[in-house]
Give the backbone structure.
Amino acid sequence: MEHVNKTDFSCYDEFVKKIEAVARQFEGLQKQFPPAYSALKHKGVPLYKLARKGVFIKKPPRDINIKYIKITEIDLPDISFEVACSSGTYIRTLAVDMGTALGCGAHLKALRRVETCGFTVDNAVLLDDVELLYKSGELEKKVIGMSDALPDMNAYVADKEMAERIKDGKILFLENKISVSAKVKIDDSFVKIIDGDNNLLSIMQYEKKINKYNYCCVFHNNVS
């Protein structure tokens, strides 16, 4: 592609508009082919291992959703952008596809994940700072509790009797009132059981056929 000089404002502005237009083409629901160098498996073998041997397997495209692509900086030949996308989206493939659409080719130079599942880099702590925070007594304030780490899972607050049943690993049927909470639907696949202090006691999975909740895991340190 012909070199674009920033001092040629009319040409540069048109180029910026073209980049933004191409970015919009890749927003929304779509199919994406996984890259050859990926952790996806073919007959039990990761694709990247096969690719390193010169064997390139083309996997079928997968459904992805790119909510938006925001161009944040253009410093040719580098273009920086922010993207919000569904799980399973390969950003390096997106960069290659956008370069193809621009007619000049492209590859991913750097990638930083800044948010996932509602947690952002603002929640993160540098490893070098962990010891300092521990010594100052501030580390606990930075730790996200196990219950809070599952914000999208419906919760049920257990009373002392239920906490004891969980501690002993006893079966919890619907008559044990696990489903009476307004926050819990009877058809929820997974439910987290917490105490009054928001400590995670257990994660359970409901089986409709036998009208019973099965234990997925019990956190004994939180069950007194």
In short: The chain has two domains: 9-112, 155-222. Residues 147 and 198 are 7 Å apart (CA to CA).
